[in-house]
Backbone:
């Protein structure tokens, strides 16, 4: 199963070369088939969400994509004659890069599970079973972290794998103690 792995890049010197390279990436992928879309450009907002969610198995809805655009986390795509947003292949690669960077993958099982930290997979299974509190269950004598502890520990470690575990624990603490869910 082929996946597209965006690279957080920016346009090269020639935007047409970038656009053609992005189109080629999608032509060689199975995103279109998984999204049940015929390959075509540009895409409407709804088609873009369908391609991201079903083709890339990334977690994003139309409101969130509009927010990413308004916050300038992704460039605003062009607008069609009717004023609606129109997304080209390079736009989708950039959006995918941001979603990958934010770890906005669909819940397990997904083609992106191999990008997830082991603790993230545990969290997803516990959420599905309605047992999210069990993620924070620790043997007696070990610390039970709160929000402040996790933020501090994330800034103190140079180990990426450890930071990713703290990141997942941070999401759990935010959800349990503060009612904020981050997928």
Residues:
């Amino acid at each position: 199963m082929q996946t597209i792995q965006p690279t957080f890049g920016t346009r090269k010197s020639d935007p047409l070369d970038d656009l053609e390279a992005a189109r080629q990436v999608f032509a060689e992928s199975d995103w279109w088939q998984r999204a049940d879309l015929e390959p075509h450009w540009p895409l409407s907002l709804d088609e873009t969400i369908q391609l991201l969610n079903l083709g890339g198995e990334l977690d994003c809805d139309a409101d969130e994509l509009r927010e990413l655009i308004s916050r300038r986390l992704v460039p605003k795509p062009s607008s069609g004659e009717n004023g609606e947003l129109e997304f080209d292949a390079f736009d989708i690669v950039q959006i995918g890069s941001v979603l990958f960077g934010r770890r906005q993958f669909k819940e397990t099982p997904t083609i992106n599970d191999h990008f997830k930290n082991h603790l993230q997979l545990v969290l997803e299974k516990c959420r599905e079973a309605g047992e999210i509190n069990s993620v924070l269950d620790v043997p007696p004598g070990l610390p039970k972290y709160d929000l402040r502890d996790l933020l501090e520990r994330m800034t103190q470690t140079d180990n990426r794998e450890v930071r990713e575990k703290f990141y997942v624990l941070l999401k759990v603490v935010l959800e349990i103690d503060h009612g904020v869910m981050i997928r």
